[in-house]
């Protein structure tokens, strides 16, 4: 391993990029890249000394291949940031590689993913098995999207650091009380570090949306979706950072729960897959829209994850209001939560035994955050058996008419 490879791997480890869920906004950016380039596919790839790790492709999949079979592994080591290969079969760098020999990749274009430390950690690439012309507009768009990808990855790393710090600080009430002043200072710094990159993402996507040629109508909904996801990501991070400060004020207002659930399901669209999701008419409620959205996103993501293990996954979102309490339920037909674990899973850093056994992803932070948010609203959250045999998470908030 040479010095540049070592530096690249150190940067990837520092950002903790290989073992975390991929934000939905990156899936949308990747799909937008393929459409804008008129290419069959696109990928976000991280390059180590031995492997190419595809975080996500235009179909939402991930994979790992040997670095020796990777176009991106060769180009990430070059000084030029942008690259276009009109015909890989005629390029001495690639003509003997398996993708070129098989015809899987013929035309190819890529832009390096360069971190704020100036380290190229991978590429955003587009490719096609056909001869495809990638013009100057395409390469400029790829450069903008690659910068947006790096901003998202770095913002995610800062958010992860914030969550780890919150977890550590919340381990004991005494330590938490002593750390209030430091936590407030930390949250302010995180706000600065995260909002800047996300603002850059939004600006890049907005500029691309303005420059999309009229003959690529399929790109518009993809860019609009990416913009919407990035905007909600920025709002969610800002709200959660405000709430990180003990005693922080919730911005309570009337809530349109139907609209909140629609937005959450839009963000979770890649996870919905074959699941049948039914949303019954939901009552009105009152609370902080960003915080309650975070609760709904966590609970729905859990339901989709575990119901996905059955043949016909079904999720139902329902609600009621008795004049004193507004109740929201999210039920699934998955494996359920054992009675002995129903209280423990809401503790910080705790994951259910079934999740650990099945290898389901997660850090044991989401449900603890949900309980903290719901309790700050004067409500309660819990889990019980659903009518379909799985789990039913329920949230009760003070009724807006109570």
Listing every helix as H and every strand as E from the N terminus to the C terminus, the arrangement reads HHEEEHEHEEHHHHEHHEEHEEHHEE
The main sheet orders its strands as 3-2-1-6-5-4
Straight-line N-to-C gap: 66 Å
Strand element count: 13
Estimated share of beta-strand residues: 15-25%
Number of helices: 13
Mean pLDDT: 83
Uncertain stretches of 5 or more adjacent residues: 355-363
Class from helix and strand fractions: alpha+beta
* Silhouette: elongated
Radius of gyration using CA atoms only: 23 Å
- Helix amount, in percent? 40-55%
Description:
By secondary structure, this protein is of the alpha+beta class. Helix content is 46%, strand content 20%. It contains 13 helices and 13 strands. A hairpin with a 5-residue loop joins strand 5 (107-114) and strand 6. The radius of gyration is 23 Å and the shape is elongated. 41% of the residues are buried.
Summarize this entry quickly.
The chain is an alpha+beta fold. It is built from 13 helices and 13 strands.
Set out the fold topology:
Layout: H1 3-15, H2 24-37, E1 41-47, E2 51-57, E3 63-66, H3 71-75, E4 82-85, H4 98-102, E5 107-114, E6 120-128, H5 136-169, H6 173-178, H7 180-211, H8 219-244, E7 253-255, H9 257-267, H10 269-272, E8 276-279, E9 285-287, H11 289-307, E10 314-321, E11 325-332, H12 353-358, H13 366-376, E12 380-385, E13 391-398
Parallel strand pairs: 8-10
Antiparallel strand pairs: 1-2, 1-6, 2-3, 4-5, 5-6, 7-9, 10-11, 11-13, 12-13
Helix pairs in contact: 2-5, 2-8, 5-7, 7-8, 8-11, 9-11, 11-13
